[in-house]
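User: Before I run my own analysis I want an independent prediction to cross-check against. Here's the chain; please return only the structure tokens and, at the end, one sentence I can use as a sanity check.
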Amino acid sequence: MDTLEQIPPPDPTSARTLTVETRRLTRQYGPFVAVNDVSLEIEPGGIYGFIGPNGAGKTTTMRILATLLEPSSGDAWVCGLSVRDRSVENLRALRATVGYMPDFIGTYDRTTAYEYLDFFAAAYFVEAKRRANLINDLLQLVDLTAKRDTYIDGLSRGMTQRLALARTLIHDPRLLLLDEPASGLDPRARVELRELLKELSRMGKTIIISSHILTELTEMCSHIGIIERGRLLATGRVSDILGSLNQHLRIVRLKLGPLNTDNSIIQNFLATGPNVRCVKPLETAGEWEVQVEGNEPELHALLRYYIGRNAPIYSFSEQPVNLEDAFLRITKGYVA
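Assistant: Structure tokens:
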């Protein structure tokens, strides 16, 4: 196991500019390695999407950053403070910097929304004379002012999630760790949550959010990290990761006119095109998705190939690579 002396502290420049930095962060449970040699950097004000299947290591990493778990080796710094320094002074400073919202939120059903926030404000030593205004401001921020005196068991799932987010903000942390915050929300509540997180980012908060709803992360996150079996396989700006994939893989959506033949025969024919890696039918009749290895010249060659064999092509258009494509390519490859 590494000692504090063996893991050098962050570069002084990084300590001023990075909200989160980890180096070779590892957490083991006996022989099982939940987080394996993870190194990442997260800048202030960014929204970092942590992507991975269940058991990949997302929650364990977040709990380490929240000081709820100790790393087995390696280190992590939040605003320059090491999570491996377990002194009372350092832990207090770290926990004042971090707001953690777990995937399962403990609430007290016979407590009003205001009472719930007042309880946690007291737990974070917020002065009594400041609490009323602070709680009212947070309820307004998460659009729950009208539910101020409503018992928590009378709130919808989306309202409960927004209340939990307000509780996470009660001590004005610089870093928010949100573990599956959109879990169980209906489409409207997800949109509201997404807009709220964008607003918090504009306010200067740095956010790490884990989610399986990859399409929403594409719209919301500035950076992503893809983790599987404890290993961080890719990390960086969303645009950079998608751009690097798009240099090697193109996805074409095409529509064919009526053909008096089985879909299996059409699929086999489309798969014979140059540089085609995979073909799959879409839900709309006559529409197909074709994955092509290469760039624009390869797309042009493929279109000429199909036209040269009298395929009744009604439309042929390249589709942008999204986070779902990135996740499948980087983790397990494309699954047809």
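Sanity check: Residues 1-5 have pLDDT under 50 and may be disordered.
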